[in-house]
Design goal:
It is a single chain. The chain is built from one helix and twelve strands. The longest helix is centred in the last third of the chain and has 9 residues. The chain is mainly beta and about 140 residues long. A nine-stranded antiparallel sheet has the order 5-4-3-2-1-6-9-10-11, with helices on one face. A three-stranded antiparallel sheet has the order 8-7-12, with no helix packed on it.
Length: about 140
């Protein structure tokens, strides 16, 4: 991943065995995280699979039976002025991927939940709830 276009977010991984802090990287085409020594990568959060030498026999296995949680700054533009906002993300990976996004902005929470882990679809649902004339102050990566 190119460091110029890579975003890094911190969050949490949880499963039956407990929880641990994680770092998520996204470069516009792929997302990746390391969990308990195993690198998981994919074109989206919903299809993260074990890859490489650290996979210890898990290479190619999908990440499932867990929850990923992370926050990221996402400014909102209203009438040309940027205002701070935070996007809280919760992804449940089981038989299917369920994604919940909550944008905390202007003292309100704008929420969207989608099956299948469609990040862009959920983000669009949040965008449509914003006040007239408001939009996100930057584009988030398509891969997420």
């Amino acid at each position: 991943m190119s460091s110029e276009s890579t975003e890094v977010w911190t969050g949490w991984y949880r499963d039956r065995s407990g929880a641990e802090a994680i770092v998520i990287t996204a470069d516009g085409r792929h997302v990746a995280t390391r969990i308990r020594g195993v690198e998981y990568t994919g074109e989206s959060f919903a299809v993260l699979t074990a890859a490489g030498e650290g996979a210890a026999g898990r290479s190619g296995h999908a990440l499932t039976g867990c929850v990923l949680e992370w926050d990221l700054p996402l400014p909102v533009l209203l009438d040309g002025a940027a205002q701070q906002a935070t996007l809280a993300c919760l992804l449940t990976l089981g038989e299917r991927a369920d994604l919940s996004l909550t944008l905390h902005y202007g003292g309100a929470a704008f929420e969207a939940c989608v099956a299948g882990g469609d990040f862009e679809g959920a983000l669009d649902l949040v965008r449509r709830q914003l006040p007239a004339g408001a939009d996100f102050g930057r584009r988030l990566l398509q891969a997420a």
